[in-house]
Amino acid sequence: MKSKEIRELTEEELEKKLSESREELFNLRVQSKLGQIEKPDRIKHIKRDIARMLTIKKEPAGKTRGTN
User: Fold this and answer.
1) What is this structure's pTM?
2) Which end is more exposed in the chain, N or C (fewer Cβ atoms within 10 Å of the end residue's Cβ)?
3) Of 34, 59, 60, 50, whose CA–CA distance to 42 is shortest?
């Protein structure tokens, strides 16, 4: 997910997407430990998306966030 797409989300949508991403990361880690993961590089992408979302979430609200 790109930064521009994240900035266009409302606060509620961002929280929901962040929660879903964290859950997906957990599931991927479990699959990895069990040796059942099909795309191991997906973990890296999810972690980066979560970091991106947290960074944008911490930005001042009026500066870059849309109020859709």
Assistant:
1) 0.81
2) C
3) 50
Share of the chain above pLDDT 90, in %: 74
Q: Three-state secondary structure along 20-50?
A: HHHHHHHHHHHHHHHCCCCCCHHHHHHHHHH
Q: How far apart are CA 11 and CA 53, in angstroms?
A: 11
Tokens of 40: 């191991």
28 compared with 60, residue with greater pLDDT: 28
Sequence-separated (6 or more) residues with CB below 8 Å from residue 64: 7, 56
List Cβ neighbours of 61 (8 Å cut-off, separation of 6 or more): none
Q: For 2-28, what is the HEC assignment?
A: CHHHHHCCCHHHHHHHHHHHHHHHHHH
